[in-house]
Amino acid sequence: MPPESQRPIDETQQVPRVYVHPKARPGTDLLSRELPWTIELQVLGAGETITVPVRSAMTIGRSDPERGIRPDVDLGPFAGYAKGVSRRHAIILVRGNSLVMRALNTTNGTWVNDLQLSAGEECELRHRDIVTIGSLQLELVFAAAPTART
Prior knowledge:
Elements: E1 38-43, E2 48-53, E3 57-61, E4 73-74, E5 90-95, E6 98-103, E7 110-112, E8 115-117, E9 122-125, E10 130-133, E11 136-144
């Protein structure tokens, strides 16, 4: 079993309240050295939101307990298999004060907005980007820093 810091969030877990940074608008870079940060992936068409604490690397895919695959962002519950989400589809990485999406070698592709990423290619992520994993669309929201700030 992975350490607690590497386990994906489930719907029963309490997530600290967050505020939306006043400068949050499409195309902004909201990351800074103030941690912990949280991003939200809003599943378009499903009315669901996946809240993810930002770490140095976060895998996106769908779980396969028989193979021991448990991505940080599990898209299986959102018809991931039917929508072409691979078990290990993409990775979100921290690069300095930015987040980047790295596509992995998948059959059904990874897009950031209208840009299709080749396997191993990276693209900087911005507030309100539309990320498409297979045919599953997610809107990326920088949920910024927790309300309890120092």
